[in-house]
Give the backbone structure.
Amino acid sequence: MNLLITGGCGFIGSNFVRYWLEQHPDDQVVVYDKLTYAGRRENLHDLWDRPNLSLVVGDIADQALVRCTCQEHGTELIVNFAAETHVDQSILGPLVFTDTNVRGTHVLLEVARELGVRLHHISTDEVYGHIPDGHQSVETDPLAPRSPYAASKAAADQLVQAYHITYGLPVTITRGANNVGPYQYPEKAVPLFSTNAILGELLPVYGDGRQMRDYAHVYDHCTGIEAVLLRGQVGEVYNVGTGREMTNLEMVDIVLETLGQDHSLVRHVTDRPGHDRRYSMNVDKLRGLDWEPRYDPRQAVAEAARWYAGNRWWWEPIRSGEFRDYYERQYAGRLAGKVEG
Ligand code: NAD
Ligand code: DAU
């Protein structure tokens, strides 16, 4: 099969490319990526010399380039990971989230419709919004996003469904829980806390730290997407996670324990505006495709922390580069005890 993997140089996309080529070594994979700050060639450093893997640097909102890339490579399936993905960045600068996540996904749908290509879209549990205790989101629940990031992902998710209903486009959607694992940009909580702990820097925990997340290993997201691509029903949406949550404070404990650091590094800082307290998904529909997660969330967080301890070559250049500006903007006031907006 000929696949176009958009956002394949990012965290989940690169893990998926690696997983897919291991499982389907004869497939042709084209990574289509804008190489934003989060998209990094080195995430696939060991694979670029393979004859069946290539990179096109481009924007998913560039219709002519997407069309011509699909035509040139005989694309049969687009898997869309490309997105702006960090909630805090969406609060600081939201417009690019609409450009990429909404318009970019819409352009992919138009090209897929024009060329008759199947499209699989990577959505998120954040589209369901904050989930009250006692409930787990199922795929038919209404979408109720609460951040600019989540709203842009919900719009994309609904456009994908609309193209199936209106044009009969063969689409599938997976809604993933919080992923952890190798090559996650250190703006996200687990790699941020892991790398800060390794450096002996403070861990900025938003608010009381009792927000709940399903920290799923990226490997299980990859196997879940594969299950949907191979055995899922066209037009359907599938949740992908473990169905088990922990608080951020529990996640911090696992990171510190794994890395042999103590709690004096933890700082409670001003909360993220509009911070969702809890995400929780029911994953029985995906289990119906003969899929099971391999990792418990506790194992997933510990394994991720160990990866950052063993792979400083990957994150040290990021942390000493443009990331510093973002870190200052996001955390300097918070860590100094100033109240942020
Ligand atoms: P990431 O930020 O690590 O990577 C995003 C990738 O998309 C980068 O390679 C970037 O260069 C590329 N990209 C951004 N804008 C682009 C554009 N306009 N055109 C082409 N490429 C562009 O993200 P991630 O964490 O790997 O997330 C991948 C997907 O999974 C996203 O759609 C995200 O919403 C979704 N998701 C993420 C999580 C998570 O926990 N990280 C959970 C559920 C769903
Ligand atoms: O749930 C899926 C989503 O998971 C994906 O769609 C997003 O792309 C991905 O970024 C992630 O969103 P979150 O906002 O849940 O993840 P993040 O790693 O930013 O934060 C995890 C939790 O930790 C959240 O409750 C906020 C908190 N946090 C985060 C940071 C960066 C802190 O307490 N301090 C921090 O410095």
